[in-house]
Amino acid sequence: MTDLPEISVSQDFSTWATSLTHDSIPNDLQNAIGNALLDYAGLCVSARNLDYVGAMIRACSAPGNCTAIGHAAPVDIASAALINGTAAHGEDYDDTFEGTPVHTGAVIMPAVLAAVEQFELSGENALRGIAVGTELMCRMALVAPMGVHRAGFHPTAVIGAIGAAAGVSAALDSTKQEMTDAIGIAGSFASGIIEYLAEGSWTKRLHAGWAAQSGVRAALLGREKFMGPRTVMEGEHGFFFGFSSASIPNDFTRITEALGQNWHAATIAFKPYACGTMTQPFIDCAIQLAQQGVAPDDIVSITCKVGEGTVHRLWEPLSEKRNPSTAYSAKFSVPYCVAAGIIDQAAGLAQFTDNRVAGPAVRDLANRVSYEIDPANEYPANYSGHLRATLKDGSEREIEQPHMRGGAHEALSRDELVAKFKANVAFGGWSDSAANQLQQFCEGFTQADDLKELSTFRSPAG
Q1: In order of start, what are the domains of the chain with their CATH numbers?
Q2: Burial class of residue 23 (count of CB atoms within 10 Å of its CB; 0-12, 13-18, 19+)
Q3: Which of 276, 319, 342, 392 is deepest in the core (most CB within 10 A)?
Q4: What digits encode the pLDDT tens for the residues 366-412?
Q5: Residue 244 · residue 250 · CB < 8 Å
Q6: Which residues pair with 403 in a beta bridge?
Q7: What are φ and ψ of residue 386, in 5° steps?
Q8: What's the distance, CA 121 to chain centroid?
Q9: pLDDT at position 346, please?
């Protein structure tokens, strides 16, 4: 057995997190959190009438006094975290971290807001909790890039449980020991395999919500002095031993170095398209090709240069990716996303319905899309896109997108985020006045004495 450290990674992080004050959260991070809350809220509304959210409501809505956004009945704290997290992540339109893809908003927002609503805490408590939880998720994603995916787990799911535990603990003003215990407990709550990739089943949709409710439960247990392993991160049988590939080295300094100075949480990216993170730059390439006047019938074949680490999620099995069995499967198919981008010059919620995905024209074009691995591709440090189209006249068109739009290199503007929010709320059947009310709540939440106003967003009528 290896010697145990005097101060563990989670203790070091908890020491910093429990000393964080409102004044030490920089303006750019506060702005990023405000944008993330707006994005999250719109996504919850957009999915409220969809079948998988209905199933979640019927299965998990225990009575309580917390809000499942867009649903009439109040629910208990864990159900609010689970339902809202599932709704926010369900269409894969939620925010993402570019360092290694984890979806922080759909985990941390529902966990922290449920806790703050349950215990009638302030907007400042919520801000602090969101900052801490988001930062920990981002930093954990950098410990072993690609390691969690290669081990067969969904990083948002397993990392999210620990991030949510820290975030809720911070919002509850837990002590350093209580947060350390909560983080340790969450290591045993973490779950989420990626077999959904095979046929586009629904389990990925609930991963963010499951992580959120797991973090809530871990934080409440930690607050009650339930002991968790302080070496959950770096221990011989710890989180990264269980959830990351042994072929990827672990760098635990990524969790603790420059805390409070280098805020990864301020760099969260917002998606312009309603599909998997690494598909986004390829859609930009496809739309650009269409805007050059290339029609689907002009195309003999399309070859995309890709990072090796994306193949098992976005390209294989190629027969499924070219002919997605469900609309959800299409979200993780570059062939389908490229075809939709060329034909529709869009990839919003309307492009990922069962009827649209089954369309013969988009499937025909998707079957002409293939890939080749580019050893120089920067994934996961950068998400880029490339396609080479061979046309019937014998010519070739080559298009590159050097980075993900919506991220650090080319952020979406506030106006673009508001437009996305309003489109999502409208998709969920809410009126303009309800959308405006929800937007105002998101813009002013940090100044609120408590978040009781969340309860006004329960009504199905908006």
Answers
A1: 9-271+425-457 (1.10.4100.10), 277-401 (3.30.1330.120)
A2: exposed
A3: 342
A4: 999 999 999 999 998 899 999 999 999 999 999 999 999 999 899 99
A5: yes
A6: none
A7: -155, 135
A8: 25
A9: 96
Residue whose pair of structure tokens reads 């072993």 in the numeric block: 144
The three-state (H, E, C) secondary structure of the chain, written as one string: CCCCCCCCHHHHHHHHHCCCCHHHCCHHHHHHHHHHHHHHHHHHHHCCCCHHHHHHHHHHCCEEEECCCCCCCCECHHHHHHHHHHHHHCCCCCCECCCCCCCCHHHHHHHHHHHHHHCCCCHHHHHHHHHHHHHHHHHHHCCCCCHHHHCCECHHHHHHHHHHHHHHHHHCCCCHHHHHHHHHHHHHHCCCECHHHHCCCCHHHHHHHHHHHHHHHHHHHHHCCCCCCCCCCCCCCCHHHHHCCCCCCCCCHHHHCCCCCCCHHHHCECCCCCCCHHHHHHHHHHHHHHHCCCCHHHEEEEEEEECHHHHHHHCCCHHHHHCCCCHHHHCCCHHHHHHHHHHHCCCCHHHCCHHHHCCHHHHHHHCCEEEEECCCCCCCCCCCEEEEEEECCCCEEEEEECCCCCCCCCCCCHHHHHHHHHHHHHHCCCCHHHHHHHHHHHHHHHHCCCCHHHHHHCCCCC
**144-170 burial, b if ≥16 CB within 10 A, otherwise e?**
bbbbbbbbebbbbbbbbbbbbbbbbbb
CA distance 190 to 200: 22
Per-residue CA distances from 406 to 95, 281, 297, 413 (Å): 9, 10, 31, 8
Token pair 């978040």 is at which residue?
451
Read off the pTM. 0.94
pLDDT tens for each residue of 153-183? 999 999 999 999 999 999 999 999 999 999 9
Q: Establish whether the linkage from the previous residue to 380 is cis, with ω within 30° of 0.
A: yes
**Tell me: the pLDDT tens digits for 82-136?**
999 999 999 999 999 987 889 999 999 999 999 999 999 999 999 999 999 999 9
Which amino acid, one-letter code, is at 339? A
Closest CA to 225 of 188, 182, 187: 182
